[in-house]
Amino acid sequence: MGAGRSGTTALTTFLGNNSSIQAIGEMHQFFEHIEHNKPCSCGALLGKCEFWSEILNYLPHDYLKNPKEYRAICDTFEYHKAIPKYLFHAFKSEDLEKYCDINEVVLNAVEKTHTQSYIIDSAKYIGRALGLSKSKKINLKIIYVIRDVRGVIYSFSKKVQSSRTPLSTIMYWLVINGVAEIVYRFTPKDKIIKLKYEDLVEMPNRELERLEEFLDTDLSDIKGRIMHDEPFDMPHIIGGNRIKSNKQIHFKRDVSWKDDTSAFYRVAYYLLASPIMLLNKFKI
Length: 284
Fold this sequence. Notes:
Layout: H1 8-16, E1 21-25, H2 30-36, H3 50-56, H4 61-65, H5 67-78, H6 83-87, H7 93-113, E2 118-121, H8 126-132, E3 142-146, H9 149-157, H10 166-186, E4 192-196, H11 197-202, H12 204-215, H13 220-227, E5 232-233, E6 248-249, H14 257-260, H15 263-272, H16 274-279
Helix pairs in contact: 2-5, 9-10
């Protein structure tokens, strides 16, 4: 859960290389991928991918025949405009149950073909996290990832995928993280953990130990790869940023925005986003 460009695709890749965790990518795009037969991160079209084709075989025929219909249902519960409805209990219970049923069927198909303890969905959408939390069959744990707004601005400024202006990025970042902070505070702490991107890249062992305790899972294999600078294999994921096209990635410290952004703008961006920046103890 969190804003785009916060490092979630990289985190998904690292965690997905653990023997107890199966990474599947941004599942709010699942029915869109079926509808348009979009490619997996491996490059193969979804229906031809050895990983996803096996999962698709376990889905009801109607999911494959009418993906646009199921995509529309999921969008109703996952888009940002759905968040107030969760807060004010405005969804009909039967509609919410249908949404949960759809996702339970999909995740059950993943579980039948891949028996890891955890399935990691890197969708990031707060609405999706709130929706899945209503399921009685999914034991949901939320990793809320937050990154310094200036790193997010720098990432959005690159002429790849979608881009945003600095002011647009700050507004987006404040809204997403403002709502995420509310969810974080009202969710039981055994069900949610907050992870700062900067802490992960600066102190990976400490942050991975926090995740180990949260997930009750041994992540020593991930810590070992980082320590020895060994590559991480890219899982078969849906969505994700441009790094998904790499067969392997390395864990590396990426704070290039500090060198490429002038002192004036570093301070100005900080001040404009100060409520959430101060709350999370980012340094000016």
